[in-house]
Give the backbone structure.
Amino acid sequence: MSEALPPAGAIETAALRSDRFRLEREADWQRLEAIVRKMEKGRLRKLTDEELLALPGLYRTVASSLSIARETSLDAATLAYLETLVQRAWFVVYGPRTSLWDWLRGFACGGWSAAVRAIGVDVAAAFAVMVAGTLAGWLLVAQDPEWYFALVSRDMAGARVPGATRAVLHGTLFGNDGQSGMSVFAAQLFSNNAQVSILAFALGFAFGVPSLLLLVQNLALLGAMLWLYHGVGLTLDFAGWIAVHGTTELFAILLSGAAGLHIGRALAFPGRQPVLRSAAAAGQRAAVVMTGVVLMLVVAALLEGFARQLVDTTLGRFAIGGFMLAFWCAYFFAFRGTRGWRERQGATRGRP
Amino acid sequence: MTRRERRRQRQAARRDAQSLQRTLVTPEGVTLTMAVASRGARFGALLLDLLFIVLLITVISVVLLFVAGGVASLERSITSGTPGGYALQFVMIVWIVIMFFFRNAYFLFFELGPRGATPGKRINGLRIAARDGGRLTAEMVIARNLLRDIELFLPIVLLASAGVESSAGWLAACGWFLIFMLFPLFNRDGLRAGDIIAGSWVLQAPRRKLAKALSLEEAAPVASGEKGRAAASGERTVRYQFTEEELAVYGEYELQALERVLRDTRAKAIEPVYQTIAQKIGRNDGWNDERAFLEAYYTQLRARLEAALRMGVRKADKHSEESR
């Protein structure tokens, strides 16, 4: 520290006023630089509490030094140094402040459900599209069973083809509890579904249209299968088989499609805001929703991999699926955040 | 606004776009000049990051395979209900989850850190920041990295689902890849799709040491005169005094050029610069003592210009008149 201080008497004897200005403040500059350098190198542990507390104040001091120096000093080297020092400090002071853990806590305590409610219009629209997709799938296949293979690939269909007997179809729904490797299956499902939902979200960039198409395509497949099982009188059992994980998984896909639609809408119809700002605001809201979607898909994969195979009765499956649906609806639409979270939100909003 | 003014504005905007300099106003109201990262540097950073990811994935896969005890027995034991089979299943799950997280969370983890940059970006001297000058939030980092998935990895998925032999698949994948890879080329800030959604941008991280003040070296020792060299230079400052007329010929531009010459450690430029200035102001008493002469001239010129600056008068260069 002492080396940063100017030699005794130097301030008084400096010929130029701008040099006196520099000598008087140089210690602060050096101190800020030392703190910033430590943070840039990732040595956060080495920072003392004192230094952390001093950082915002020092940043403002140096920023004002820069403003003054621009008006009064012609020392190009000092100006350039101050300029970069303020930039570096700005990066640190306005860098990501929350740790991942703090952010996740705020996310679970109300940030997530608030974000879902914020894109409520898009959720409703995506839901309508999903219902329409299911209906379309059903109607298409009911008109001409050939459509079935256009919607469901041969590998995926397996034994589930039009004309299969009731016994065969019944076998696809029940009696799989002896299967091994379920946990691996669940992990694969998760990885795959997460990718699909991220895709639905990301495609929102193309004005949301591909997101909706993806929803229609996935749900038409469901409609076609529903028709197949309806033909042999297994509608309820099939619904139960889907409901175990489907209430969670379809909800997650609904949210990701809605998030994509939200971005697409912000890009296509920014309203009175500039397009870039509107897109950024929508993207940040949608990002929170999407983090939640990935979590929901983990739950869905666990339910699909374990609960569906282990619970072999339709009633039990409906109970699990129904409970999950009620849970998600309550969490998103009834839960307004914990008191602590709401207070913190109010505090950040009230800040100038 | 006249047409000429408008044209001048447009030209200025175009100049801005071509250079990488952008101005940004911090919440405190300080205007900062930032440099947007060049596209080349960003591409290099991306390649480095992908290299790191591949290396990490390979190392982890090899380690997990080693734990699993070879590929050959994998298929057989995974379906059997033995304890060994369960252990293998566990390894498989770990592998699948790790793969997912590397694809999605590598960038997230590093950009959420205090340094706001992945290792590849840090090596290339880049970092991300909020476009509006405010705080970089976790939401921004998440949004910009969710989009990375479609920009980079989707073509691979597309190819895998269409089959490596299908030419349509290759065409679609290449087209997709090119559109998103070229996206930063078509806007002036080099934003990629993810940056637009997130409201972020990638900037150059600056670094500069505080150079010694030139005017202090000779000014400070005037009174104290502690060391021999300092005393000698102190005498010299007194030796060269320039009159108002001699100082009035140059402006800020020449002052900064002179500063660069004096800071340059190679002394070659000193002599010609001395010749030019001495000729211009009509003095020749600095012969064989050029550096001291120039330093004295620099200090006094700066003192004069800064004094004028405080009164709100600027002189940009030797051609311009002093203006308020």
Summary: The two ends of chain B are 23 Å apart (CA to CA). Residues 33 and 179 of chain B are 30 Å apart (CA to CA). The first strand of chain B starts at residue 21 and ends at 25. Confidence is low (pLDDT under 50) at residues 218-237 of chain B.
